[in-house]
Specification:
Shape: elongated
Number of domains: 3
Order of helices and strands: HEEHHHHEHHEHHEEH
Helix content: 40-55%
Radius of gyration: 34 Å
Number of helices: 10
Structural class: alpha+beta
Oligomer: single chain
């Protein structure tokens, strides 16, 4: 094994590894005042692929760093004037960790993360002010054709229509004549992505979207047809499709808080019923 070659170096650091101590099956390498660094710890830390010389160098630095930390910790413990305060903080931190771990275990075992569509919709409708857009969104379709493309008057009629027949005609037309055809009537797209496909800045496009459902543009090579089915401005309400994930997380958190409050209330009532809570006032 790759650590074997380090033992000659490591044994220099070991001062009393032969003392009787239960190491839990681990092999002690270095000991300082009852603190042990184990062979397994060093092997885990050692990066793979090092040469023999680099492995020896890494081991020396790792052991020295470990020893320095142990010695500094010991020195600090003997010089801190208020160890009682530290012990109190450590005790409180341990209680918090234990409590958090138990709460997560209870929640995992007792509380389902399933959220019904009805719950989600009701929460969204009652809390729309919590869901605001960071950027504008649009639904619709976009067609880009060469300036000399045929039947442009038909295209103008089709792209403005919501009928399935017009949509079918537009799709057939796009197969033969369109440079790009994007259909996004069923899903929200950031306006910035559509702006990238048009000879128009995001700001100018947003101004157009405020006023027009159908936009026709052209540059020196192409003609562009954008039909807008829905538009949401930056700062406006997020559509439920966009807010769904965030709303679900909020609902789960609310359920978890309510669940733990009920657990605490139940424990308290049981303790009162059994006279476990003693008041001295």
């Amino acid at each position: 094994m790759r650590i074997i070659c380090l033992l000659a170096v490591i044994t220099v650091f070991c001062t009393s590894c032969t003392k009787q101590y239960d190491h839990g099956g681990k092999k002690p390498l270095v000991e300082i005042d009852g603190n042990y660094l184990y062979y397994e710890d060093l092997q885990t830390a050692l990066p793979a692929g090092l040469s023999k010389d680099d492995s020896l160098l890494f081991a020396e630095h790792y052991i020295q760093s470990w020893a320095e930390d142990v010695l500094l910790s010991s020195k600090a413990a003997s010089n801190i004037p208020n160890n009682a305060e530290i012990e109190r903080l450590v005790s409180n931190y341990r209680k918090s960790l234990v409590l958090h771990s138990y709460q997560q275990q209870l929640i995992s075992q007792k509380l389902s993360k399933d959220i019904s569509e009805q719950e989600l919709n009701e929460f969204y409708e009652n809390n729309k002010d919590l869901f605001k857009l960071d950027y504008s969104l649009v639904k619709g379709l976009l067609l880009k054709v060469p300036l000399n493309a045929p039947r442009l008057n038909d295209v103008r009629k089709w792209y403005k229509s919501d009928s399935q027949e017009s949509l079918d005609q537009l799709e057939k037309y796009s197969f033969q004549n369109a440079v790009k055809y994007e259909y996004f009537r069923d899903n929200w797209i950031p306006v910035s992505e559509i702006s990238d496909l048009l000879p128009l800045s995001i700001t100018d496009l947003e101004e157009q979207l405020d006023k027009n459902k159908n936009i026709e543009l052209q540059d020196s090579l192409y003609r562009y047809f954008l039909a807008v089915n829905d538009y949401r401005e930056k700062g406006g309400e997020e559509p439920l499709e966009f807010a769904r994930g965030e709303a679900k997380e909020m609902l789960i958190n609310i359920k978890q808080v309510d669940f733990m409050r009920q657990v605490k209330d139940d424990l308290y009532r049981q303790a009162v019923k059994r006279n476990k809570i003693k008041h001295n006032y």
